[in-house]
């Protein structure tokens, strides 16, 4: 019985050692990534692929797919290779797998980034971080990842 209590305390201690990123730093990193990654992609789609903003307005679903697919792929590549995006790097944030405490696998990162897009449309997924002690969003919970600050 005593061994079980010791193991339980050790597990709780390991969880507490993680320095979860704050909601402020995660929000700042998101805004920075929006300008550094999203804006160039939007410009390319608006003016090179579609020809104009008016053409984008006429074909919104197709236009948003042309924006979101490259964004998800670029972010997935950056998280897989470096463990962080430019916004995360600016605030010293890293994406980790909750189980291994290491950089997540490519599949987990891709799943997380697809869930990011879905969370964005529901807004609920993003608002969750303001009510949780570990500041996790819905896509972090679904993919069992965490954003930590080193």
Which class best fits the helix and strand makeup?
mainly alpha
Number of DSSP-assigned strands = 2
Alpha-carbon distance between the two ends: 36 Å
* DSSP helical segment count: 8
The backbone outline, from C-alpha atoms, is: elongated
Strand content: 5-15%
Low-confidence blocks of residues: none
Fraction in helix: 55-70%
Main sheet strand line-up: 1-2
- Gyration radius (Cα, Å) is 18 Å
Subcellular location: Cell membrane
Pfam families: RDD (PF06271)
Keywords: Cell membrane, Membrane, Transmembrane, Transmembrane helix
InterPro entries: Pra-immunoreactive (IPR051791), RDD (IPR010432)
Could you describe the 3D structure shown?
One of its GO terms (cellular component) is plasma membrane. It is a multi-pass membrane protein. The protein has one domain (20-149). Helix 2 (23-49) packs across helix 4 and helix 4 (60-82) packs across helix 6. The chain starts with a helix and ends with a strand. The mean pLDDT is 88. It has helices at residues 2-17, 23-49, 53-58, 60-82, 86-90, 106-122, 124-127, 138-143; strands spanning 93-97, 145-149. By secondary structure, it is mainly alpha-helical. A two-stranded antiparallel sheet has the order 1-2. Helices cover 69% and strands 7% of the residues.
Provide a brief overview of the structure.
The chain is mainly α. It contains eight helices and two strands, in the order αααααβαααβ. The chain is elongated, with a radius of gyration of 18 Å.
Helices and strands in order:
Layout: H1 2-17, H2 23-49, H3 53-58, H4 60-82, H5 86-90, E1 93-97, H6 106-122, H7 124-127, H8 138-143, E2 145-149
Antiparallel strand pairs: 1-2
Helix pairs in contact: 2-4, 4-6
């Amino acid at each position: 019985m005593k061994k079980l209590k010791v193991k339980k305390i050790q597990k709780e201690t390991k969880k507490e050692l993680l320095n979860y990123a704050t909601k402020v730093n995660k929000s700042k990193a998101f805004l920075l990534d929006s300008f550094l990654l999203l804006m160039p992609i939007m410009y390319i789609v608006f003016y090179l692929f579609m020809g104009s903003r008016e053409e984008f307005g006429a074909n919104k679903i197709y236009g948003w797919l042309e924006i979101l697919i490259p964004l998800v792929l670029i972010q997935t590549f950056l998280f897989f290779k470096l463990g962080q995006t430019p916004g995360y790097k600016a605030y010293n944030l890293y994406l980790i797998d909750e189980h291994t405490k290491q950089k997540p696998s490519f599949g987990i990162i891709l799943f997380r980034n697809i869930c990011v897009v879905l969370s964005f449309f529901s807004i609920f997924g993003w608002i969750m971080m303001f009510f949780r002690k570990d500041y996790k969003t819905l896509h972090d919970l679904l993919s069992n990842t965490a954003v930590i600050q080193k």
